[in-house]
Amino acid sequence: MLTVIPRCFAAIAATALCATSAAVSAEGAPAPEADARWSVSGFGTLGAVWHDEGDTQFRRSVDQRRGARANELDFSIDSTLGLQVHGALTPQWSVMAQAVMNQGRHGEWGPHLVWGFVKYVPNDWLELRAGRLVTDIYLDGDSRHVGYAYTAVRPYADVYGRLTYDNFDGVDATVQHAFGDGLLRFKAFGGRTRGSVFLNQREHPVPIGRSFGATLDWIGAELSLKLSWGNMVSTRSDLYAPLRPLLHGVAQGAHALGDYGLAAQASTLASEITDSNRIGYLGAALAWERGPFSLQLMGTEMSMTVFPGFEGWGAGATAAYRMGRWKPYVTWSRSILDPKDRQLDLNRPIPGALPAALAGYPVAVDYLRGVYPSIMGYTRHDQATIGAGVRYDVADNVALKLQVDRVDAKRSSTLLDDRGYVTGPRALTVFSATLDFVF
Amino acid sequence: MRIPALASLVFALLLSAHEVVAEEFVLIVNRDSGISNLSREQASHLFLGRVKMLPTGARANVVEVEPLRAGFYRRLLGREIAEINAYWARLQFSGRTQPPLRVPDSAAAVARVAEDPQAIAFVDAVPEDARARVVLRLGP
User: Fold this and answer.
1) Which residues of B touch A291 (CB under 8 A)?
2) pLDDT tens per residue across span A354-386
3) Which three-class secondary structure string do you get for chain A?
4) pLDDT tens for each residue of A389-415
5) Residues of A in contact with B44 (CB under 8 A)
6) Theoretical Cys-Cys bridge with A320: which of A46, A281, A329, A415, CB 3.0 to 4.6 Å?
């Protein structure tokens, strides 16, 4: 801990300094001293989770190494601490850096830089940012870390739990204009992906990835609509590269034995393992608020061609009623993801007597028969959650939330068993309590 | 705690949630700002950080009076202050914009507006300072 905190500050300071010098050089002269205004702020969540479903770990996203186990009060799922430095250098130029500490992909609590950018706002209709940014896929503020900003305890784990590569280093540009009685806002973004693909308990860093996409928002007095589209493309994928020579061997062996169908399937799959490289989403969301009532609806189509890949959709809804400091709410979410349909018929009989050159063929086929269904199963996901809770705003900057969720998974890639592997059918009731704050 | 006492506490909390705000709020700008009036919609966009410029094109310096925030936002938007605070957390911690400057009372807000042609603030009475101009009234 003593070593990670200085790193956290160093990350923020480095970004802020970098941003400052960029702004100064772009202006051609230092910002007037009187105009520079610096502020330090932050946010955090102290969260506790409990359930009693045996051999099950409950996680909010797949980048969490461990989840809440049965009959253990777990504080690591939702707890977070964020620190932010903002500097208004001139009326047009500003810089911001934000580091967040939460349970990392290796179980550690080290800080990571979520935001770190220079912003230029020449007028009301244009905004440009460059640096460490977040893909704009969340309805409640471009981030999944600020619990105080959400009505419920956490973003829909069924839907957002798989989208863990939401950081990128690049630029975004936003233009907005009055439209009807609201504002129409269009944002385009692109840059180098920061994040990893997670399958089972393994992290697969995206070595050279690019993120790009766009959002279109209409923001009215009571109604807000959002369309978002995004992609993460990797120029190469090493996830299952070791399978490639194995598949090539099966392709050659099957071809030699006259099984041209399997030969073609194995050959195609071998090339897809290293060439398929896209993860994408296309989503729509609606938020409606009138007096004490609020309603949020969202849906997204998601796909990943990186082997073993998946295709599917997710949806979520939250309805709430504000009564002064109290805000009871109900939530629902569901997501279904299926592995991309790839034919590999390994069940055909293998001749008993094979020439010496094909001695390894049955071994390779046997091995693939064992691992291939498991690998394909990593991305299977059919999970629904229905929940109810209450938010109580203790003070102007502190909110207490109590929530109970019924999670029903036919198969899940966010839940883990006690050994750390994705689970089959599970149904569990999860009790959560969080204290969210900003400062 | 006995059940009647608990019920009373819950009832009191619920009642506090529905307190009535009777005072009038007025939006003021500097008399040299070039603005003579604002619509409710323009005020909403400014105080929610959706637009950052005054109608004249000058950058807006939005000022809030701390003790009046809850009543003002309930009057302007029909929303509780807890919702507004959560909303600002979304904007602030996603780098979109920073929250308005907060001052402790109406006098401080009037003084700020009197000195700053780009300032806009809400107060609970028409100010006597001639350097401040009322551009929108939000009556009960």
Assistant:
1) 78-79
2) 788 787 888 888 888 888 877 777 778 899 999
3) CCCHHHHHHHHHHHHHHHHHHHHHHHHCCCCCHHHCEEEEEEEEEEEEEECCCCCCEECCCCCCCCCECCCCCECCCCCEEEEEEEEECCCCEEEEEEEEEECCCCCCCCEEEEEEEEEEEEECCEEEEEEEEECCCCCCCCCCCCHHHCCCCCCCHHHHCCCCCCEEEEEEEEEEEEECCEEEEEEEEEEEEECEEEECCEEEECCCEEEEEEEEEEECCCEEEEEEEEEEEECCCCCCCCHHHHHHHHHHHHHHCCCHHHHHHHHHHHHHHHHCCEEEEEEEEEEEEECCEEEEEEEEEEEECCCCCEEEEEEEEEEEECECCEEEEEEEEEEEEECCCCCCCCCCCCCCCCCHHHCCHHHHHHHHHHHHHHHHHCCCEEEEEEEEEEEEEEECCEEEEEEEEEEEEEEEEEEECCCCCEECCEEEEEEEEEEEEEC
4) 999 999 999 999 999 999 999 988 889
5) 221
6) A329
